[in-house]
Each structure stands twice: as structure tokens, then as C-alpha cells.
Amino acid sequence: MNKKVFFSILSLLMLASMPTAAAQNGYKLTFKSTSMPDGKYFIGQHFRDEFRVVDSATATDGKVLFAGKKKLDSGVYVLLKDKKTKMFDFMVDDSRTFTVTFDEKYSNSGMKVEGSKANTLMYAYMAKMDWAHDRSKAIGNDKAAKESLSNEMEEFEDKYLKQNAQYRFTKLISMFGNIDVPEAIPAGSADTNLHEWQARYYRTHYWDNVDLKDHSLIYTPMLFDKTNIYFFGVLYYQDADTITKYAELLLDRVADDSTMLRYFMDFALPKYERSTKNIGWDQVFVNLVEDYYLKGKCTWATKAEVYNKRQTVDFLKQSLIGAMGQELIMADTNQSEDPKDWISSHALPQKYVMLWFWDPDCNHCKKQTAELITLYDSLTRANNKVFEVYAVGYESDVDKWKSYVRKHKLPFINVGGPNVNIDYQEAYNVHGAPTMILLNADRQIIMNKTLATKNVLPFIEQYEKKHPEQANRTPSKWQLEGIRRAKVEH
Predict the structure, then answer these.
(1) Residue 487 domain-assigned?
(2) Last residue of some domain: 261, 288, 317?
(3) Does residue 5 carry a pLDDT above 50?
(4) Residue 378 pLDDT > 90, yes or no?
(5) Domain final residue pick, 291, 317, 343
(6) Number of domains in the chain
(7) Residue 179 within any structural domain of the chain
(8) pLDDT band at residue 86, thresholds of 50, 70 and 90?
(9) FRET label pair with 326: which of 127, 200, 377, 390, CA 20 to 30 Å apart?
(10) Are residues 243 and 304 in the same domain?
(11) What is the pLDDT of residues 390-440, one digit of tens each?
(12) Residue 266 in domain
């Protein structure tokens, strides 16, 4: 076993199991503790990051008994103080009649089990993992001691897995343990960067050991954790195309299994759709919806659900990175009703344009607007104003917006009010303030999430490294004679 596995195993203290071919009927599960108050308790199953209640019972004198005649499938269950507050996990595996005595800390080393060897072994295993975790922290940076501990745990792990292979949680340790990544690039490969090759290997083989045909896994904390780490850990810093590629590598494996496909789609889509900070995540949402919902692969979806997804995709496409930014033509602080006096977001001489949707009643808006003023003024003094700020007052009270602009002497192109050519909220998917959009020389959207002010110039520098053709571009297409400038009232 790869020694790296030991340290990943430390996070796998929440264990799960697969159903047996024939589960016993009837159960008597007793839980005891001198620290257990009287009252109602529940047992439940894991489902994503929530619990599904299976049974309830009332505790008296530090003891609660859950009993029933119905079938109780093998798996991981959880004892709950109420329907949401977890106390600890236990296993239904080799027995459905057993007693667990626990301490006030629910420590694995303090669990005493009668009538279920599977639970006895599980708690012993997790207690050993707890010990190793504490020992590793105490060792610190002592490489020799860490190597010794790793060897000890490797030996323990191998012996444990071999001796207890018949138990469900043992199989799941192997299923959900970390994969072994080769330490060298294979001979004959065109790759030269070991780190990048290993990262791709890890992403590609991340799900190799998991039996995705086993529906019982959706009721385990381990599948939820592994899914969460995959989408929002392993793939977190990748661009939209890479995230889509590896997301679909998983989804295609379960494309013919509506239960598992729905589990992963329902997990990922809401986060990609609603993210307001991660650049490109809206593109991932669009890609996945188009490739699965709109191609009829999500067989559980009603016509109404598919229609709504299509509408959302059509809406988001207008403001995706790479899309042409729609030209805004708005009145400045003079609030002229004559469109000839309005100012275009596109007809500006700067190479880049920042659309800055802000609200004078928003504290975060005010703070970042002040930071933008500092950056803007410094670039102006240096005669290096690579971007113009087209600041849209996201406030229905026009007088309040104008007063703030005058008082703080905002040096930007300041526009706002009802006099505008299009609905900018729909055009740029603006759900609130602040919202920042960056347009390039061709007035394409190159960034559609709000960056910290200190990151604006580094973003533009990175953009030009990836797109060197943009480095020397000028917005000649939009340089019109007699460009109107913002009129700030003083």
C-alpha cells in the first residue's frame, strides 16, 4: 500500500457499507451512556450532507432502545439528538441486535459494543486512526518519526484489511481510500512536467476504485465527501473547459443509471449556477445542462424542469466569458432624457472597460469603490489608464446616487437612473451589487465575477499572457469622434 494512503485515510472516519443480498428482518438497537439525558432520540441515514430519519425512541435512565419488525438494510446509520444533530455513526452489518455504550465525547476508543463484531472492529479501527492523527500532530516535522509512524500504520492497515475482509466497512476503506499515483512519468510519454502529469492522472483515475453501480453508496457520508472533494477541491482551480471535461468523465460513467446520474447532477449544478465568485463556473453549468438535460439524458426531469433549465442557459449565455458584451447607453448625472446625451459603455478610448455596478447603500460597494478610485487616480497620474470604469449606479433613488457621486468626487464614467437603452440586469446577469464585468478591446467579456481591486491589473496581465494578440490591441472600432465624457456635478 502506498504510504500516502495513510494520511488520506485519516479523513475517512465516517464509514459506510453496501447492502447484503438478504437483510434480516427486525432489529433491536440499544444505546447507553451515563451522560445521555432523557428525551427523544432518532436513528437516521446519511444523504449528502443531511440525514433521513429511520426511527425514533425515548431515552430513560441513560438508555434508549430502537426496535422494529421492518427490514433494516445494511449500512451506516447515525444516532441523532434531534433530527439534525449527529452524535455518532454505527454500522448495521453482521447483526441487528446489539448494544453500544458510549462516553460523553462519543470517542471511538470509548465505544463498547455487545452483539456486533462489525461495530467492535470498526470503532477499534477508527480509534487507531484517531491515535495516529494525534501522534502525527505531536511529531511535527520530525521526518524519521513520521516515517516510522507511516510504516506502523501501513502494517496495521494491511493486516486489518486482510483479517476483516468480510465486513462491509472494510471493503469501503479500500473503495474510498486514495488512489496510488505513479512516482514517475511512464517511458515513452511526451509529458515532461511530472507534477502536471500526476495531477492529470489523479483527476482521471479519481473514481477508479468506487463501484458506481452500487446505489447504496448515495446513503453514505463517504460518497458525499468524495464527490465534494472532486468537484470543489480537485477541480476547484481549473478553467471551465477542464472542469467540464473531468465532470463529464464521471457523469458519462453513470449516464445510463438515472439514480447515480441524478445524485451527481443535483449535487453539482446548483453550486455552479449560483457561484458569484468563481470565474467560469457559469460556463460549466451551461455545458452540463446542454450535454445532459437538453440532450434527454436526465430521464427523471419533467418537461417543465427541462424548459426552465433551457431558459436559464439562454439567459446565462449572454454574459459568459467570451461573449460579446452588450452595449449600454445611459444618462450620466445630468439625467438628460435626450438619448443623444447618453454615454456608451463601448465608445471609450481605453483598451479595457470595467462595468462597475454599485450601490451607495452597500458597504462593500463603498469600500471597493474607494479602492477603485485610488487605483484609477494612480493610473491616470502615470498616464497609464489601461481601463475605463463605466460605473452604473445600482440604486433607484437617483438623488441619493448623484449626491454620493458629487460628495466623493467619483472620477469614473458615472451613469445611472431609468434612462438606459436596455435592461442591464438581464444583459449582464446582474443580481446585486457590487458586480464587476471586464470587457476587452473588442468589447468581449473577459471576466464576469467581482475581483478584489488589487487583483484587477494582475488579471489583465495574465489575460494578455494567455491572449498575446490582445496586448497591443486598441479599441479603434469604438473610437468615435467626439466621445462623450462623464459629467460629474460638483
Answers:
(1) no
(2) 317
(3) no
(4) yes
(5) 317
(6) 3
(7) no
(8) very high
(9) 377
(10) yes
(11) 999 987 789 999 999 999 999 999 999 998 999 998 889 887 899 999 999
(12) yes
User: Do 222 and 307 have their domain in common?
Assistant: yes
Detail the DSSP E strand segments found in 285-440: 329-332, 343-344, 352-358, 387-393, 413-420, 435-439
Half-sphere exposure of 150 (CA within 13 A, CB side): 14
Strands (E), 286-326: none
- The boundaries of the domain holding residue 147 are 4-171
Give the residue from 405, 411, 365, 404 showing the smallest Cα distance to 388: 411
Contact 250, 207 (CB under 8 A): yes
Residues above pLDDT 90, as percent of the chain: 74
- Please indicate, yes or no, whether residues 256 and 126 belong to a single structural domain of this protein: no
Beta strands in 293-440 (DSSP E): 329-332, 343-344, 352-358, 387-393, 413-420, 435-439
**Within-domain flag for 64:** yes
- Could you tell me if 390 and 348 are in contact, meaning their C-beta atoms sit under 8 angstroms apart? yes
Same-domain check for residues 311 and 348: no
- Residue 159 is given by DSSP the state H
Phi, psi (degrees; rounded to nearest 5) at 232? -120, 20
- Which residues touch 118 (CB under 8 Å, ≥6 apart)? 91, 93, 94, 95, 167, 168, 169
Q: At 287, which helix (H) or strand (E)?
A: helix 281-288
Distance of CA 400 to CAs 93, 307, 359, 394, 420, Å? 66, 40, 10, 11, 18
Q: How many whole angstroms separate alpha carbon 479 and alpha carbon 364?
A: 33
Amino acid (one-letter) located at 467:
H
Beta-carbon contacts of 246 under 8 Å, excluding residues fewer than 6 positions away, are: 203, 204, 234, 235, 238
- DSSP 8-state class, residue 28: E
User: Residues 145-174: what's their mean pLDDT?
Assistant: 91
Query: 317 — phi, psi (to 5°)?
Result: -60, -25
**Dihedral of alpha carbons 394, 397, 403, 404, sign:** negative
The band of 280, judged by pLDDT with boundaries at 50, 70 and 90, is: confident
How far is C-alpha 95 from the geometric centre of its chain's CA atoms?
Answer: 38
**Phi (first) and psi of residue 451, to 5 degrees:** -95, 155
Give the full edge-to-edge strand order of the sheet including 112-114.
63-71, 25-32, 97-101, 112-114
127 plus 198 within the same structural domain: no
